[in-house]
């Protein structure tokens, strides 16, 4: 026998019993985001590699270690998208969306690919629901996006939520701060972990993320970027906070919040829950990203949240059986015609497909909670209609009569 094949490491099937809760989440996200004027966008599953090395940043783990990269027949380097923001800004620039009324507000529900070590809530192909507002710099956009993600997570019910909020200022402030931080880390090199020391020049901010006790001790007294923000960045951050306060959204200010993408400027945030050890979602401003991708200076902000992580944290939804208005017991041509005509008339129809006897078909119809069952005997040229509630069985003259009766008895909605 041939070896039984399995799904590739870190990928997973979405089985029918998991589909309803994903659909419910998608509907909630769609209602909340489209209600606020965000429009759905889809971008390709792969892009030229340079989009991510320039957009996400060459020093990030994502670009250094986690991209699925391959060459096409012309030797061009392509990459399965590890995230959605750089592709959407690319699309905004490519399609001249700056000519539309600003900000352009977009949302997405797509799969992404990262060659990460798989574990609970961390996969190599995973789905994100995300939103981006491109073309507006004011603090109200930041607060609006945070509030929308908060609304989605609250409606789904993902345990007790914690919003961590920070600000990175401008690239200039960050560069000056970075120098100070590198100098600080160098003076304490002997107490830092080897990994942190190895990354001092590449990504010193990641030292705040380290778990090892020596590094944590050193970082407790490290200079903080939030204390060094330029006045207008500090003002922007205060204005975002004032709007979140006005909306009644709780948050904690986290001066050491680090996210694994280089494009962030100013506002930065992440949602956590007590139901899960990893973040549900996060995002921030990326006012320099459009320019990095060869476009004019365009402010932008957005977030993405992991679909699987949200569902892991959520209470499982009760499994709902699809409505069945009519079960057609019979596999001949009349039965087939009845099923097709019934669907055309707007009924939810399922037909016997497994060669069950009439008794077996009636059992299957009961399992599906069908409202009506038509027993079609092609050889005898008869159709019996059974009302599953009353058990009453009547002879009906033709398929039209079956459909008329089934339409009368169908489930509302
Ligand atoms: P991110 O923090 O890299 O941000 O990913 C957002 C969310 O996607 C995470 O919080 C997590 O829930 C989910 N996620 C990430 N990696 C995995 C994985 N390997 N398995 C399962 N879930 C995962 C971004 O991707 C940015 N593009 C967000 C953004 C939008 N910033 C501005 N606009």
UniProtKB/TrEMBL annotation:
Q: Where is the Aminoacyl-transfer RNA synthetases class-II family profile domain?
A: 1-313
GO terms of molecular function = ATP binding; histidine-tRNA ligase activity
**EC number of the protein:** 6.1.1.21
In the record, biological process GO terms are:
histidyl-tRNA aminoacylation
Query: Which residues make up the binding site for L-histidine?
Result: 83-85, 114, 128, 132, 259, 263-264
Aminoacyl-tRNA synthetase is among the record's keywords: yes
Q: Which Pfam families match?
A: tRNA-synt_His
Localisation: Cytoplasm
- Reactions catalysed according to its record: tRNA(His) + L-histidine + ATP = L-histidyl-tRNA(His) + AMP + diphosphate + H(+)
Q: Which family does it belong to?
A: Belongs to the class-II aminoacyl-tRNA synthetase family.
Note the subunit structure.
Homodimer.
Q: What is this protein called?
A: Histidine--tRNA ligase
